[in-house]
Amino acid sequence: MEMKEIREILKLLEKHDITDFTLQRGDHRIRVRRGGAVFEREVAVPVKTAPSPGMVPPPSPVEAPAAQPETLAVGEKQFVVTSPIVGTFYRAPSPESPPYVDVGQTVSKGTVLCIVEAMKIMNEIESEVNGKISAILVENAQPVEYGEPLFIIDLA
Amino acid sequence: MIIHRLGSISSTNDLLREMADNGAPEWTAVMAENQTAGRGRMGRKWHSPPGNLYLSVLLRPGMESGELSRMSLLMSLAVYHAISQKGVTLRLKWPNDILWKGRKLAGILLEGKTMGAEVIHVIAGIGINLTMPRETLPGDLASHATSLEEAGIVWSREELLTRLETAMRRYSPSIRGMDWERAMREWSLHADWTRDYVFMDGSRRVLGRPVELNREGHLILETDMGRIPVRSGDLVEI
Predict the structure, then answer these.
(1) Domain limits for position A16
(2) Residues of chain A positioned with their CB less than 8 A from the CB of B72
(3) Minimum-distance CB partner of A124 among B112, B117, B218
(4) Which of A112, A148, A153, B90 is the most buried (most CB within 10 A)?
(5) Cα distance from A118 to chain B (closest Cα, Å)?
(6) In this predicted structure, which of A134-143, B150-159, B197-206 has the lowest mean pLDDT?
């Protein structure tokens, strides 16, 4: 992960007042916790231990063994919305329209969250759960891969 | 197909989408004389004066979300077959434009809705230019758009509707025996592989020539940087 990306994440966390965030890519994991004005950053060294299923990151700064590649560690009461297709992520139906959802917004099962365009099919992604948008992980008009995390929803 | 025939309407896709959300069955369709807010992707306008065909069809294909993009090639094949007439050569442009002499004869706006791996519905909005007097076209449309009349294709609107339904059912993934690989081969046969395009995706601009489809139906473009797959974004003629 590049410093630029880390800075982006920090900015987003601060903006949306997120206190604890973990992102894992392959063997690398970054965890950011915010308390008061203090930022804490950790970058994991590659670990080859087998993952334990359903693992939740421990509250201590000690790094847990690496889980599967491309997974995003989230809390038990959170739900990650992933892209069902390869395509381009759009937060609004057209450049002039307001976004479907924003961080902090309450959503219910069936609420449209975004569009992923693939081969000119404008595909609306509906929420599978009731809750509140906790993070939006992709910038508007960026390409997304199959299974890529798009949103984190705090479950109601 | 149950077709609701209407006069002037804002957008056939918008109305059908409301009907879909209220539980309308597959093959419910909306047809309008003209659209006051006809649109393409991302809020672009689809010029919709009276005299052409504006039809939206509700599909509930029993496919997984990951396969949804196949609908683009399948529905363009369906429209291609519906409007084809002996003696007139039509070409497909990736992923779903139907061209005559390089100009657009018909456009398809596909709007899907998925929840997790499940496809809730797909709305296929089809606009076919039956007659488009050149002098009535706004702006640069005259150089991009054409009509069945201009191409010398003489289907009536009713004939077209029947042909569209037959063809859409033939290429619908919910029909047993629909063979994706065969459909892609067929699509490739009718495509134009002789033109260069600028591929635009976000801020990226790449010049290249289409060479083939990959297994997912993405377009492989031969460029200075080698072969790249195109899976979303726009292809603009140079």
Answers:
(1) 3-47
(2) 118-121
(3) B112
(4) A153
(5) 5
(6) B197-206
Residue A107 resides in a domain = yes
Domains in chain B: how many in total? 2
Q: What is the CATH number of the domain that holds B111?
A: 3.30.930.10
Please tell me whether residues A82 and A140 are part of one structural domain.
yes
Instruction: ipTM value, please give it.
Output: 0.90
Enumerate residue ranges in chain A where pLDDT < 70: 1-73
Closest-CA distance, B45 to chain A, in angstroms, reads 11
As a whole number of angstroms, the distance between CA B56 and CA B71 comes to 14
- Domain extent, residue B233, equals 197-237
Tally of domains in chain A? 2
For residues B162 and B216, state if they share a domain. no
Domain contains A86:
yes
CA distances from B93 to A35, B185, B197 (A): 55, 14, 11
